[in-house]
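seq as requested:
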Amino acid sequence: MISPPGHSSQENRLDGAYVYVGRAVAHTGKIIGIQFGMRENFIETLISVSEDRYCVEYDLLNSSISNGLQPIKMTSPEGLHYSSVRIEMTAKPTCVLWHPRREEDVEDR
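struct tokens:
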């Protein structure tokens, strides 16, 4: 795994270059794609999508060489903790594309 330039952790910075911070076993199938993106709160994020039909978002702020790559932990309304979201039941994804939310997007309302 690599850390994006401008990452806040001094441990991962190397003159604005990407730094390998470790591996993660987040999927059971072949990785289809990974994508860096920017959340609405201007925090950089990384997502991966796999043939296992799951999407995993990684916590770049808490990932480091010593901590490794950390998936974001989420909590369901039932109180269950999980780090991936099933995006499809039958079809296998073929690509990944970051689509940031914009206020003027009709689809996001």
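The chain has one domain: 1-99.
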